[in-house]
Specification:
With about 230 residues, the chain is of the alpha+beta class. The chain has one domain: 3-Layer(aba) Sandwich (L-fuculose-1-phosphate Aldolase), CATH 3.40.225.10. Helices cover about 30% and strands about 20% of the residues. Strands 4-3-2-1-5-9-8-7-6 form a nine-stranded mixed sheet, with helices on both faces. α2 packs parallel to α4 and α3 crosses α5. The longest helix has 23 residues. The radius of gyration is 18 Å and the shape is elongated. The termini are far apart. It binds zinc ion. Zinc ion (ZN) binds next to loops. The site of zinc ion has 6 residues, from loops.
């Protein structure tokens, strides 16, 4: 869809990402929220809107302490995203974070049920090398075990904020949090990097679900066969 804003403006980027993620099945039924920060301005998609139809002017803009800077046109009667408290917490606790995506991808929901504890773990997968180690400049290595904390879902996003904060403090190397039977939050230094990581997390969660179905353990360190080309 043509945007009346510049190509690299959050009012172009976020509606475009909404359509991409909707087409992946990550934002059905108005679910999820996307956000980009530029300077002290945090842009967030609205609540209760068909995500594939979000337009540039529909975004809410606020400061990091929650003060409104710019609102959508009043006649559209749009509401602030219910995810706003969680998105604000992610920016506050992660210095250098400039994008936060919350999506309801089925792979995240499935791993949150197949891993009934407080952590999802996977190792020896090429795609974990796309995932940043928290706020550091380092990425996970192929041989590392990548851990994603899992928190319990509640009726409202407000109620999840406390456990989300605790999980981020307990796992400084994570760039994502799984919410059981709900979805995932992913964040990072730029909208492009977070898009890459969100796709990689989704891929890894899908691989892990299929491994479980095939009786394979995603946490197990594989042993190369005798005579292998190592
Ligand atoms: Zn949600």
């Amino acid at each position: 869809m043509e945007s009346k804003y510049p190509e690299d403006h959050p009012r172009t980027i976020l509606p475009d990402l909404c359509r991409k993620f909707y087409s992946l099945g990550w934002m059905y039924g108005t679910g999820g929220a996307l956000s980009v920060r530029t300077g002290d301005k945090i842009y967030i998609t609205p609540s209760g809107v068909q995500k594939e139809l979000v337009q540039g002017e529909d975004l809410f803009v606020q400061t990091s302490d929650g003060t409104d800077i710019d609102l959508p046109p009043a006649e559209k009667k749009l509401k602030k995203s219910t995810c706003t408290p969680l998105i604000t917490v992610v920016y506050r606790l992660n210095e250098g974070c400039n994008a936060v995506y919350h999506v309801h991808n089925t792979a995240a929901v499935m791993v949150s049920m197949l891993w009934p504890g407080t952590e999802f773990r996977i190792t020896h997968q090429k795609m974990i090398q796309c995932i940043k180690k928290g706020n550091s400049d380092k990425h996970f290595d192929y041989y590392d075990t990548m851990v994603v904390p899992i928190i319990e879902n509640k009726s409202t996003e407000d109620e999840i904020a406390e456990s989300m904060t605790a999980a981020m403090l307990d796992y400084p190397e994570t760039s994502a949090i799984l919410i059981r039977r709900h979805g995932m939050y992913v964040w990072g230094p730029s909208w492009q990097k977070v898009k890459c990581m969100a796709e990689s997390f989704d891929y890894l969660f899908n691989v892990a679900v299929q491994m479980k179905q095939c009786g394979l353990d995603p946490e197990k360190i594989p042993v190369a066969p005798e005579g292998a080309y190592t």
